[in-house]
Design a protein that fits this description.
alpha/beta, single chain, 2 domains, 14-stranded mixed sheet, 471 residues, ten-stranded mixed sheet
Length: 471
């Protein structure tokens, strides 16, 4: 990485705090009613089946309980669902030319580096502002090979049969209350289809931005990787800080077909007033591979557990995740893997950092079905606490119904040792610099797996969190 590159990606504390004074074409009143659902669907000019689907999801949402069943889990009592605006339309159509995006919105994404990243290293990019996608573009060489990269609102109409076949089949609205809420309110997001045998050599990227106070964002990501195809997709998320609570309840569905490979990378840095209740799932067929790379360095409360359903023989799942919790934050994250076929393999490697009273929890599930002979699983959880105020929990759950399975689990919890600090400080580093170096070394496996711009961004976020973190 050149000095010029490093300077371009340098960020400061105001990096994500840019607020846009934007006139919105439409913003639903706080709270959710059947009329709100009808209003959203009408504005989007959706087919009748989608309106019916939304209304059924809304019915499920009202009937289902809040996920407060875990005694050691996050408390959602302060999430006021009646204060949230569930649909905020910025009043601009989706453009494929950055120059046509409204100036104030464009300025926000330019600060985040989206146009520059696309020019440098991406096969295509998209950007969503509030409830609507404002920009989407795929480079012609991939379009000519039949790759589809658009937003889900467009896919619903332009690729209706393909969309309807897969939409919320991996994440059914009956899964939990916020999956049902998502089905009722979803808007925008990303739709990707990679044809058989096509290997997209450069990443596709989308960035999701919330701007207003007490807003909700419910983007839907649907990725279909056909037989022997490959794709790498990167999502970034952020928002400025407000005193009032906001809600993010997005959904990711990934279908990895026979012999295919999908990599999903997500860096979520919501502000510390956001409740991040996201749902992510993948179904993997014979000899397919799903790779998850997850980073959570923001939000007030996060409940996120990407799930891999290894449906086909020889299917594989690799998960690598990091969660960072500071004062007032509860990061309840982890991964789930369901081994439903023979010779399936999964690895879960989770890391967490807590400071100033922040709470991190690894919450994981490994299910090995009776028919999943010769399944192999390895789970490793490493937690680093920077003071005596913070907390770190490990809550693994293993359900093994086949005696041929090989299952391993490791968990470590540590603080920065005096000997480590002494060694580094004897080499001329201050205590704060030494602590930063130790923490950056701890997260290195994550940053090595990230695209370069996200790796630099994440390291800088860690450094910002580490400032004055002595004790």
């Amino acid at each position: 990485m050149t000095n010029q590159d490093q300077e371009f990606w340098k960020i400061d504390e105001n990096y994500f705090e840019h607020k846009v004074t934007q006139k919105y074409e439409m913003q639903t009143a706080p709270g959710l009613t059947e009329e709100t659902i009808r209003e959203i669907s009408k504005d989007k000019q959706e087919p009748q089946w989608m309106l019916d689907f939304r209304l059924n999801c809304f019915k499920l949402f009202k009937e289902m309980k809040m996920p407060n069943d875990w005694p050691d889990g996050p408390d959602l009592k302060e999430l006021d669902l009646n204060s949230i605006s569930y649909y905020i339309k910025p009043g601009t159509k989706t453009e494929s030319d950055w120059n046509k995006v409204p100036p104030e919105i464009k300025k926000t994404f330019e600060r985040l580096g989206i146009p520059e990243a696309e020019r440098r290293s991406l096969a295509g990019a998209g950007a969503q502002f509030e409830s609507e996608v404002v920009y989407h573009n795929l480079k012609k060489q991939w379009e000519d090979l039949g790759v589809i990269f658009t937003d889900c609102d467009v896919a619903l109409k332009k690729h209706s049969e393909l969309f309807k076949k897969y939409f919320m089949k991996c994440v059914p609205p009956t899964l939990h209350k916020f999956a049902a809420l998502h089905g009722a309110c979803w808007s925008g997001g990303t739709f990707i289809y990679i044809p058989k045998g096509v290997k997209v050599e450069l990443p596709l990227q989308a960035y999701f931005r919330m701007n207003v106070a007490a807003g909700g964002q419910f983007e839907h990501t649907l990725i279909i990787v056909d037989e022997c195809a490959e794709v790498s997709y990167v999502e970034g998320c952020s928002s400025p800080s407000y005193m009032t609570g906001s809600l993010h309840a997005g959904c990711v569905e990934i279908f990895v077909n026979k012999g295919a490979r999908g990599r999903y990378t997500s860096m979520e840095n919501w502000s510390k007033n956001v409740f991040n209740l996201n749902t992510k799932r993948a179904i993997v067929e014979d000899d397919g591979l799903i790779e998850w790379i997850n980073g959570n360095a923001g939000s007030r409360t996060t409940m996120l557990y990407p799930c891999s359903i290894l449906k086909g023989k020889g299917a594989r799942s690799d998960f690598l995740g990091i969660a960072v919790a500071a004062k007032g934050q509860f990061q309840d994250t982890g991964a789930k893997v369901i081994h439903a076929a023979p010779n399936t393999t999964s690895t879960i490697r989770s890391k967490s950092i807590s400071k100033d009273g922040g709470i991190t929890t690894y919450r994981g599930l490994v299910k090995i079905a009776k028919q999943a002979t010769n399944a192999k699983v390895h789970v490793q959880c490493d937690a680093l606490m920077l003071d005596n105020l913070s907390k770190s929990n490990t809550v693994p759950y293993m359900d093994v119904d086949n005696k041929t399975a090989e299952v391993g689990h490791e968990a470590t919890v540590a603080k920065i040792g005096d000997e480590q600090l002494f060694y580094l400080m004897s080499r001329g580093l201050s205590e704060e610099e030494a602590r930063k170096m130790i923490v950056l070394g701890f997260v290195e496996p994550i940053t090595k797996a990230l695209p370069i711009e996200y790796a630099v961004e994440f390291n800088k976020l860690i450094e910002l969190e580490m400032e004055n973190a002595l004790g």
